[in-house]
Amino acid sequence: MHPKTLRLYGLALFGAALFACSSDGTDNNNPGTIALTLDQTSGTVQQGNQTTVNATLTRGGGFTGTVTLTVTGAPTGVTGTLSNVTNTSATITIVVGAATVPGTYPIVLHGTASGVTEATATYSLTVTAAPTPSISLALTSATLTIVQGASTPTTTVNITRVNFTGDVTLSVNGLPTGVTAAFVPNPANGNSSVLTLTVAPTAPVGTFTTLSVQGTGTGITTVLTPLSLTIVAPTPSISLALTNATLTIAQGASTPTTTVNITRVAFAGDVTLSVNNLPTGVTAAFVPNPANGTSAVLTLTVAAGAPTGTFTTLSVQGSGTGITTVTTPLSLTISAGVPAGDFTLSTTPPTSVSVTQGANANVTVNINRTGGNTSDIALTTTGTLPTGMTLALLPTSTTTNSSVLTITTTGATPVGATPIVIHGNTTGLAEQTVNLTINVTAPSGSGNVTVSFAGCDPADKAAWLAFMDGTSGTWTQVTGTADVYNFSITQSKGSLAYVTLPTGESSIFVQNMTQAEFTAGTLTFCSAPGPVGTTVNGTAANLTATFIGNISFGGRSAIAAANGPFQMLNVPAGTFDLIGYMHQLAAVGINDRVFVKRAETPAAGSFPTTVDFAAAGTSSLAVAGSTSLTGLNGGETATHGMTFYTGGSACTPSSLYSGVATAANFVMYGVPSGLEIGCDMHSINVIVSDAGHTSFKFLLENFLDVAARAATPFVLPADLPTPVASDAGGPYKRPQVVVTGIPAEYNVSQSLIFQDLTDVGKSGFISATQGWTGGANVTLTLPNFSGVTGFLNAWAPVTSDNVSWSFSTSGGTLASVCGAGNRFVTASKSGSL
Question: Which of 24-33, 400-409, 707-716: highest mean pLDDT?
Answer without folding.
Answer: 400-409
